[in-house]
Amino acid sequence: MFQVYVKLFIVFFLFNFCASAGLKPCLDSTGLTYLPSATSCDNELDDAICIEIFASADHTPGAVVVDTDCINPDMTKISLECANRCGMCCERAESSCGDSET
Prior knowledge:
Layout: H1 2-15, H2 47-53, H3 76-81, H4 83-86
């Protein structure tokens, strides 16, 4: 457990002050349902760390909850490293975002 907290500490302080381009979760036009691309990637960080950092995120169908830290401009780098947890896989550079509604 100590290792998880050490990793969280390092990750938070190394990446908390990154610039943001205004990330947003990959939601449909209603904002109520994640697009298929939202969770089509793996987290780059360990899943346990992403769950710890973004505890309130929930992309269960019909229960979309966006963790406010996922869209926090100061957390951009970590949000992308936990893109699956934040429902932001389509925001990654390697994503084609083929199911975008815009």
